[in-house]
Amino acid sequence: MRVAILGAAHPHVDYALQEVQHRPDLQLVGAAEADPQMREAFLADLGDVPVFASVQDLVAELDVDVALVAGIYSERADAVLAALGAGAHVLADKPLCTSLEDLERIEEAVRGSGKHVSVVFEKRFYPATLALRELIEEGALGQLALVASTGPHKLRQQSRPDWFLDPVRYGGIAADLPVHDIDLVLSLTGATSGSVSAVTGNARAADHPGFDDHVAVLLHAGGVAATIEANWLGPEAADVHGHYRMRIAGSEGTAELDWAYHSLQVTTHERRTWDVPLGQPRRPAQYFFDAIDAGVEPEVSTASSLLATKVALLAQRSAGAGGRQQSW
Questions:
Q1: 122-327: CATH homologous superfamily?
Q2: Which stretch of DSSP H or E encloses residue 198?
Q3: pLDDT tens string for the chain (328 positions)?
């Protein structure tokens, strides 16, 4: 299976590199990135693998089976479309794209193509999440009612490239950080319709004018109300990049996930609080190549990838409209 990297603006290019290292049937055939600094930062150790100055040059010259898209956020839609046009499956870092118009272009291109477009929502595969899903399927929490999640991130502004702090090229915090937890809520509830609203703000405007650094999302999905808070205000001296947590309340009990410190605590009406034993972590992109090998739809399917992206982009639209509710 021939793999290429289309855009390298984030360390998540390792999603593809890890799988190439672990799977003898995968071959990294090329990478594309126009920016010299990003090529040096993320593609310097590829050996004799050719690195192209543009995505278009790569797909014109190479046959590709799977394309990992991890470039500048506002450029990802064009990379996805180029990959689909070349007959490749797409594995994408989040966000998949930065506008609803771009999402419509991707939806049209993938329709009838027979190709998968999957966003690496790696939180699905963290040990605590897998254990939570088992509890929910067993009925331990009863009917789900409320979800509350928090996602602080360190900005580390001095090391951020200029494009990241550009609202146009970045696309907006509501479309970026909350999408993992939006996907989890949609996955756990199976919801295919609902509503979303969001508010954003810039608490450190003196450091980065025009760049919103925090967001609060209210999501209604499948009878569940979810509040999702995310920010670029994570304390720089913290011992983790982000203290990501989620609390889920159901009719029969409550579960609290702490992804940063690898724990899942559960309390029910019948049992006092206990720590759920956790399994081993999975590589972030393992699910995708397992599915391609088996000839089945990846767990993070095209439909779920597009839906989570749409809801996140609608949250960004809501924030731009003063928090007005958006239906999906």
A1: Dihydrodipicolinate Reductase; domain 2 (3.30.360.10)
A2: strand 194-201
A3: 999 999 999 899 999 999 999 999 999 999 999 999 999 999 999 999 999 999 999 999 999 999 999 999 999 999 999 999 999 999 999 999 999 999 999 999 999 899 999 999 999 999 999 999 999 999 999 999 999 999 999 999 999 999 999 999 999 999 999 999 999 999 999 999 999 999 999 999 999 999 999 999 999 999 999 999 999 999 999 999 999 999 999 999 999 999 999 999 999 999 999 999 999 999 999 999 999 999 999 999 999 999 999 999 999 999 999 999 999 9
CATH 3.90.550.10 fits 2-93, yes or no: no
In contact, 50 and 71? CB cutoff 8 Å: no
Is pTM beyond 0.70? Reply is yes
